[in-house]
UniProtKB/TrEMBL annotation:
Keyword Transmembrane helix: no
Protein name stated in the entry: Alkylated DNA repair protein alkB homolog 8
Membership in a protein family: Belongs to the alkB family.
This protein's record includes keyword Transport: no
Gene Ontology biological process terms from the UniProt entry: demethylation
Domain RRM, first and last residues per copy: 35-128
Domain Fe2OG dioxygenase residue range list: 228-337
GO molecular function, one term: RNA binding
Entry cofactors: Fe(2+)
Sorted UniProt keywords: RNA-binding
Amino acid sequence: MAAPSLHVSGAKMSKSDRRLLRKHNKFKINFARRKDVHISDIPTQHLLVNNGGLGNNVQREQLLSVFEPFGRVTSLVMEQDQPYAFVSYSSIPEALAACTAIHGCLVKALQTVPSAQDVQLFLTYVDRVPDVAMPSSGLPEGLVMIRDFVSEDEEQVFLQCVDWDSSDSQLSEGAHLTLKHRRVKHYGYEFMYGINNVDPDRPLEQGIPHECDQFLDRLMALGCLNQRPDQLTVNQYKPGQGIPVHVDTHSAFEDGIVVLSLGSQAIMDFKGPKGEHFPVMLPRRSLAVMLGPSRYQFTHGIMPRKSDVMPVQSASGDSLTLSRRDTRTSFTFRILRRGPCHCCYREQCDSQTPHGSQVCTRRLQGHFSDTRHSPWPRVVEFLKQLPLGALVADVGCGNGKYLSINPGIHMVRVLELSWLKS
Ligand SMILES: [Zn+2]
């Protein structure tokens, strides 16, 4: 017996019904290119659910609530980014009953899934369900993950100790562009997004809050850090916000970057130099310590998404589902480096390779290298286009790196702004 048709027998098909049926037939033709699963002309216990996949925001729970009333679901396979899923029953009659009842039916969107819409499901029998392609498990080399490192009470203390009101004024305009409205606050030292570095000679008034003391004691007791962190960056991500892929500047921080995730989970993508990809789940209240290759060599970032695809284990087997993100606040503790980096990852190292920090921050900034010592390209460009004899005051000139850019202009070095006022 073939799958029941979309329209009610005897009734005339409406225009939109015909359009949907055409769409479904087209989907079946495309699906036939798949080598591992084949469409079956006779009923089987396996169903292909068109329009009911992670790729169109349908959740596992939603499908189960639709299919479980018709029998024992032995498998529900959802694949990343695909707008379809596979459902297996323990017997053919169960699958037949489900197919008859559900094919062409509208399934209401879950209110908890942002941007989800009502979907019309189309069912087809298939000869088998595919093996589940789970996101690569395992961690990049050097990454230490500890679940439930802080209690829910501690989580609240951490979240409440951040005084967001005094944060925005610290950030330069460039920082806002980079951050895309994600809220950031620095303690101990400011991380300057324009140059992707810190100035070890300019500590901030506010050190790491004392609320973090006990946490830091426990962190040090783990024995994976040589020094106690002296810099803290707090990031607040609303659902849909992320952080571009980057390697933390080698010359700015020592080995051991500590990330405490609070409020919500997120998936952090680690990518290695040979294209290795580790999507790492950072559960709420978990600790991640990036050491060695995971700190120096792998890039890491968070995709700006409202939900993450996650593996689930259940009676009906391993599968994937969508997990909605809530507001996630991360506490990133780092140890300031005083002096050049001597790591063995030269290619990513701004201390050892002239453009090392470009490798690190290419996706963040595009062109900056060690800007504390070398000229900024935009400033060079500006100076070069000035007419012969122009007078330029280089206020806060530092080491005078712009003095010799354009020999046709007069440069006045001004060490401090107060000199101009007097
Ligand atoms: Zn290095």
